[in-house]
Design brief:
Elements (H helix, E strand, L loop, with lengths): L1 H12 L13 H4 L32 H5 L21 H12 L3 H26 L5 H12 L1 H24 L4 H12 L9 H15 L1 H19 L7
Helix pairs in contact: 6-10, 7-9, 7-10
Protein name: DUF1279 domain-containing protein
Organism: Triparma laevis f. longispina
Keywords: Membrane, Transmembrane, Transmembrane helix
């Protein structure tokens, strides 16, 4: 007790000395916040915890970054589209005079270059519109690039499957009239009494062949390039 009184008297008797740096009010409010996991100045044994992500309060994202996607990477030089201007009358005359001075081999070479450029531009357009990834777009591309060989191959497969359907009717001894009578019961018509048996077999074979089109057409689209190129009738500007 006596020691405590002596300590209090010594503290009161000590003159007040102001701090070297003046104190400012609201220092903690005006100073910038400390980063996470940093030591507190008045409590060095404590650290500021890192904020935990919360499903109710997702992290803030600036509207500028979400609304403006990053720019696409630059396209290589050999893939960039070359835009040709429209030929004027004087340009047509100059080009016509230039082509008239070419030999037959040089004209064929120039034709292949132009057809190759047209095919490349059409392929890029179909990729841009998304048609290249569809069966319809690939079918149009085959008709454009392969032309008559593609049609010949398609109709050849159509005739082959039709002959197989007609041969299958004879091989399995299918009674076409019974089949037509069954269809008459479903539709209410009287076709079986008006159709000749031989013509009825042809009609049923054609109908079955058309029902195979959803399977035949994808097969034609997939195999046309290999078959036509293998026979040597593919485009020369590939």
């Amino acid at each position: 007790m006596i020691a405590l009184r002596a300590t209090i008297r010594r503290t009161i008797a000590t003159p007040y000395s102001p701090p070297s740096t003046p104190l400012r009010p609201f220092t903690s409010l005006l100073s910038p916040p400390l980063p996470p996991n940093s030591k507190l100045p008045h409590r060095p044994w404590h650290t500021i915890p890192s904020p935990l992500p919360s499903p109710l309060y997702p992290p803030h994202r600036s509207s500028q970054s979400s609304s403006s996607p990053p720019p696409p990477p630059p396209l290589p030089q050999h893939l960039q589209t070359t835009v040709l201007d429209r030929l004027e009358d004087k340009d047509k005359q100059v080009y016509s005079l230039w082509t008239s001075s070419l030999t037959t081999t040089e004209k064929d070479h120039e034709k292949e270059n132009i057809e190759r450029s047209i095919s490349s531009l059409q392929t890029r357009l179909s990729l841009l519109t998304g048609e290249e990834l569809t069966l319809r777009g690939r079918f149009k591309a085959l008709g454009r690039d392969y032309g008559m060989p593609f049609l010949v191959y398609w109709w050849s497969l159509w005739g082959l499957t039709g002959a197989m359907c007609y041969g299958g009717i004879h091989f399995f001894d299918v009674d076409v009239l019974v089949l037509l009578e069954y269809l008459d019961d479903l539709t209410g018509y009287d076709i079986s009494t008006r159709v000749d048996p031989s013509l009825g077999e042809v009609a049923v074979a054609v109908a079955l062949n058309e029902m195979l089109e959803p399977v035949r057409l994808p097969f034609v689209v997939v195999t046309t390039k290999k078959v036509v190129d293998g026979l040597g009738y593919g485009p020369k500007y590939k």
